[in-house]
């Protein structure tokens, strides 16, 4: 597994866990400046645990779609460069703003990820990575509409939640459809299901075509 600079495996109470350096956010165990990154609460953490080569590197510029209250994006902002965090629900976004107060590289945006024109004036272009965890219907479409922000050699690292697309369909069928739709703008580099950390989720790494 290739971890970005700034992400390490460390021991917390004799258990080896991913960790980043930064102020605590969700009551996670700490070891000095290091704080444990709980893969069961984070699809990106689980993506690292499952061994996907995300292509993410320390100091990357990142657009994070579906930031919620900041659990995962706080870890991203610990190791990455400028991190733009999009969340459209007001309540979690309030917590996200609190998380950003402690992190100078984290920029919360109370925006709809299906409407990138509403934040295109704030987010820089030629980003190194989009990290997506929106858990909403139309996850491929969200990734395609935000592709404009990625550099030619940038990476999309996404978690696709099958039940957000169709609660009754077989997850494998949903994933096949989402990957097929993504091919319109991305070359898929790797995929892996996120069990046992997250049921019925597919992690994927792609680059823009
Ligand atoms: N990524 C978060 C983490 O690990 O800390 C958890 C994200 S949660 C599974 C999905 C989030 O995506 C929710 O907070 C939801 O409000 C947000 N979301 C769904 N559709 C969205 C959209 N179109 N624009 C922005 N946020 C969206």
CATH superfamily: Vaccinia Virus protein VP39
Report the mean per-residue pLDDT as an integer.
97
Low-confidence stretches are: none
Number of strands: 11
**Bound compounds:** S-adenosylmethionine
Task: Count helical runs.
Answer: 6
Category from helices, strands and their pairing:
alpha/beta
**How would a crystallographer describe the biggest sheet?**
7 strands, mixed
Shape: globular
Bin the helical content. Answer: 10-25%
What is the CA–CA distance across the termini? 25 Å
CATH topology: Rossmann fold
What can you see in these coordinates?
The chain has 209 residues and is an alpha/beta fold. It has one domain (39-208): 3-Layer(aba) Sandwich (Rossmann fold), CATH 3.40.50. 24% of the residues lie in helices and 31% in strands. The protein has helices at residues 43-49, 71-79, 90-101, 139-145, 162-165, 171-182, and strands spanning 8-12, 15-21, 30-31, 34-37, 62-65, 83-86, 106-109, 127-132, 150-161, 186-193, 201-208. The strands form two sheets. A seven-stranded mixed β-sheet has the order 7-6-5-8-9-11-10, with helices on both faces. Bound molecules: S-adenosylmethionine (SAM). Residues 42-43, 66-68, 71-72, 86-89, 92, 112-114, 133-136 line the site of S-adenosylmethionine.
């Amino acid at each position: 597994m290739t971890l970005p600079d700034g992400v390490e495996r460390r021991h917390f109470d004799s258990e080896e866990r991913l960790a980043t350096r930064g102020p605590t956010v969700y009551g996670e165990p700490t070891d000095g400046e290091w704080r444990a990154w709980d893969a069961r609460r984070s699809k990106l953490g689980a993506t690292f645990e499952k061994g996907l080569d995300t292509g993410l590197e320390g100091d990357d510029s990142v657009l994070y779609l579906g930031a919620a209250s900041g659990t995962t994006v706080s870890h991203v902002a610990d190791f990455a460069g400028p991190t733009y965090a999009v969340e459209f629900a007001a309540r979690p976004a309030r917590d996200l703003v609190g998380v950003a107060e402690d992190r100078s590289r984290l920029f919360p945006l109370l925006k709809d990820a299906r409407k990138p024109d509403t934040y295109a004036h704030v987010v820089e272009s030629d980003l190194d990575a989009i990290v997506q965890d929106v858990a909403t219907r139309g996850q491929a479409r969200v990734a395609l509409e935000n592709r404009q922000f990625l550099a030619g050699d940038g990476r999309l690292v996404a978690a696709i939640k099958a039940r957000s697309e169709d609660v009754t369909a077989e997850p494998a069928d949903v994933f096949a459809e989402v990957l097929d739709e993504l091919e319109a703008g991305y070359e898929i580099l790797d995929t892996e299901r996120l069990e046992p950390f997250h049921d019925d989720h597919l992690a994927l790494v792609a680059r823009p075509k």
